[in-house]
Q: What sequence folds into this?
């Protein structure tokens, strides 16, 4: 069966990729290891949902078997949700198929039966367009396509798992920081801070306006002043607050990627040419050590 074969360990991304397939007039076939997901996706517009049965609970252990299914079924595309597990599976399947793969597409569309994909490179600094023909693999981030509706048939399929790797133990990751993606207001600190104690300047402002404190990658990954969950940008948290205030953040593209959807951006920086001012709605050119305490005092009143 030709069509787009889909896998994601996140059911909402699966629904969105089904939407992509339908939008392009292709038959969406969902692969899943989870009965529960199969039931949840029953009305999400797929043509067929195939529940994989086998000796492993790790989807990546079926990569070789999935590659064979795609070949046998004459699949046009294997579209995988761009989660850590999905990326792992996608790369293995593309390896077994020895076919083209584009990871983390920004957009995808068909033209003359060729798939045209765009994706960002160099941390978002440039956008690349790639043309794919023949059976290919892509990974698709969340939020790219609209889900659709429609009932799917269900099928189970026994597949041979590669059991050389198995799960010995699982444990939740203990998160130290806040979930910035849900914050309504964010105060963000950058490398302009001289010492860790000066984070208090940001915390004081954040307390007054009811904001969470975030930072640039360098503050979390180089100086380790805040936990990794606190940094914003292309490789960190993508935030959508109503208000984002930065202090001493230069506004490099990799950081700005994470604040594009903020309602109102206020930037404080000594350098009037700092790129953050291009992204900002309001800019204050000044020393954060003077400006922020004054702002905090004014807002207290
Ligand atoms: C592949 C890749 C991915 C990356 N991903 C991310 C990411 O997800 N998130 C991220 O943040 N970065 C990311 N980076 C790093 C990014 O390119 C920048 O290096 C980083 O964002 C810069 O952090 P900063 O603005 O804190 O520091 P700087 O660029 O050093 O900026 C400091 C700013 O403070 C100003 N300043 C100095 N003193 C004062 C003062 N007293 N008062 C006010 N302003 C002052 C300066 O004028 C300057 O604008 C990534 C880089 C790469 C290559």
A:
């Amino acid at each position: 069966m030709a069509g787009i074969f889909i896998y994601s360990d996140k059911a909402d991304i699966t629904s969105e990729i089904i939407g992509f397939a339908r939008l392009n007039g292709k038959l969406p076939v969902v692969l899943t290891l989870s009965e529960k997901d199969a039931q949840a996706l029953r009305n999400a517009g797929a043509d067929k949902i195939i529940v994989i049965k086998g000796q492993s609970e790790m989807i990546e252990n079926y990569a070789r078997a999935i590659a064979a299914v795609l070949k046998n079924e004459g699949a046009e595309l294997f579209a995988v949700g761009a989660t850590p597990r999905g990326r792992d599976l996608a790369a293995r399947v593309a390896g077994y198929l020895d076919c083209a793969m584009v990871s983390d597409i920004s957009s995808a569309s068909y033209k003359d039966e060729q798939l045209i994909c765009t994706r960002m490179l160099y941390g978002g600094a440039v956008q690349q367009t790639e043309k794919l023909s023949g059976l290919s693999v892509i990974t698709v981030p969340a939020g790219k396509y609209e889900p659709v509706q429609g009932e799917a048939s269900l099928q189970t399929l026994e597949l041979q798992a590669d059991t050389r790797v198995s799960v010995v133990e699982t444990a939740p990751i203990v998160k130290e920081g806040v979930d910035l993606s849900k914050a309504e207001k964010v105060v963000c600190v950058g490398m302009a801070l001289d010492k860790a104690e000066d984070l208090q300047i940001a915390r004081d402002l954040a307390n007054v306006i009811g904001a969470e404190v975030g930072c640039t990658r360098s503050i979390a990954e180089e100086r380790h002043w805040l936990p990794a969950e606190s940094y914003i940008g292309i490789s960190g948290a993508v935030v959508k607050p109503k208000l984002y205030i930065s202090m001493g953040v230069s506004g490099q593209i990799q950081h700005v990627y994470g604040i594009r959807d903020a309602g109102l951006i206020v930037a404080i920086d000594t350098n009037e040419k700092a790129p953050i001012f291009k992204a900002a709605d309001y800019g204050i050119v000044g020393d954060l050590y003077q400006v922020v305490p004054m702002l905090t005092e004014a807002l207290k009143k």
Notes: The first helix runs from residue 11 to 23. Residues 123, 190-192, 216-218, 231-236, 248-250, 252, 254-255, 258, 268-271, 274, 287-289 surround flavin-adenine dinucleotide (CB under 6 Å). The mean pLDDT is 95.
